[in-house]
Each structure stands twice: as structure tokens, then as C-alpha cells.
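A note from the maintainers: we've had questions about how concatenated examples are separated. There is no special marker in the raw files; a new sequence line simply starts the next protein. For clarity in this README we add a label.
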Amino acid sequence: MNYVIINSEECKGCRLCIESCPKNCLMMGSNINTIGYQYAEFQSEQCTACGICYYVCPELGAITVVKEDKASKMKEVKKNE
């Protein structure tokens, strides 16, 4: 599964990642970080790991995109058999 990790302490709540995600995988959360910003959260299994959210984010280190490769999937399938 592909997914996005949002560093809540780096996110300033600009919503650029939310607006740019083609699969609507991100949403504004209801929590507030220690510097007073409401931050984005990952909320979907539809993620394609396209990286658009990463590239539009003005805060370095706020977003990490994780793409699961096919080799990892095959290992997991064989492990479960």
C-alpha cells in the first residue's frame, strides 16, 4: 500500500497538498500542532504515491511519500501462504 506521512509539527496547514492530490487522499485534520496550526492528515488507500503533495508543500520535511514496491508485495504474499 502506498501512503503519505505528514509530520504534524512541520505542517503549517496551507492546504496545498490537499488541493493538489488527484485521489483526494489528504484532508485537514481536527488536531492542532504545538505551534498552533491545524495540520493535514492522510486518509485514503487510493494513494498512487505520485508525489504531487510532496512537491507542492512549502515546508521541507513535512511530507514523506512511501511507495510500496512489487518485491515487497511478493514477499508479503509468500510469507502469508
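[label: protein 2]
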Amino acid sequence: MINRIAISRAQPFPVVLKYNNIRSYALTAGFVLAAVLVPWIFHQFHLAGPTFLPMHIFVLIGGLVFGWRAGLIIGLVTPLASYAVSGMPVLRLLPQIVIELSAYGLIAGILREKYNLRAIWSLLGAMIGGRLALLLALLTIYFVAGESYSPLGLETNPFVAFRSVIEQGWPGIVVQMVSIPVIIWLVGKVTAKNIQE
């Protein structure tokens, strides 16, 4: 029963990228580009990135579809590329966001690729693991630099910053929980159809 609920049937999905061909790099670059471009568009319409978390969506999908290597690379490169292009996220938040997004991609990929969990359980595990990584990053930064930041600015301590991130990002969390499993299901259908033809 637990296997039926949590474990996926054997299927040719996810499409694991092993970075032994140009296609792997091109797909990863495409996801990084989308993860940089969409938040930039959000900012043009004054939609708060920390509220809707558009960057997270591409990192999580990358890990769920392409495996842990791609998830880790997309999560690591995306905030750095975004900062280089647009200055967002702001420099004081960049280290914690790099750690958080890298953890999302890595954990989503491991749970899906190595443990063959269904997309929804892999997504939940990644969202919890990524936020725990964020908390560890906030604690480390606080003990090293003596400061703790959230998207709202300087906070009194890392736990307040962590709570602020969660409270501000709940609309994005809901969007992820609703949209990502549907997107993964659609990608799986298209992949299976292409393999059958």
C-alpha cells in the first residue's frame, strides 16, 4: 500500500541528465535562463519575488525532471546568474538563497531519481529539506557575521528571519504545490508518448 502511494511505477522518467552531451548543458542553461527571466518579469510588474517564489519553481522542476545533478546545478547557478544580470536577490540575501535553492534541486532530484518517489512526495521532501537548509544557512550567517536578514530586511535573529521568509512566501508555496505536480505529470505524458512513437 505504501509503495503504491509513494513509489512510482517503473517508467522512463525522469530524464536524468548526466552531462556527457551538449543536450544536458543546453537543457540546464534553458532552465537557468527561465529561472532568471521569470522573476525579472515579476519585478517589472511589482510582484514580489519573495512572495510568489518564481525562481524556486524552475529549480524544483529541474530536479524532479532531470535528476539531482541538474537540480543542484540549476539551484546553484540561478541566483548567481540572476544577481549578475539584475542585482536580485540583493547581495546580503544571496548566500542563503544559493544554499536554499541548491538544496531544493539536489533533494528533489535525489528523491525522484534515486528513490523513485512520486513527484508530490519528492516535491514535499525537497521543500522541507530546502527550508531546513535555509535555516542552517541563516544560523551560520548569524554566528559568523552577527546579522540575520530576510527579504523584509534586518531581523533580530535567524529564527525571526526564517519565520518571515515562510510567512511571506506562503502564496508561492501554494502555487508550487498545485502547479508542479501537474507540470511533472504533463511532462511524463509527453515523454512516454514520444518513447512509444
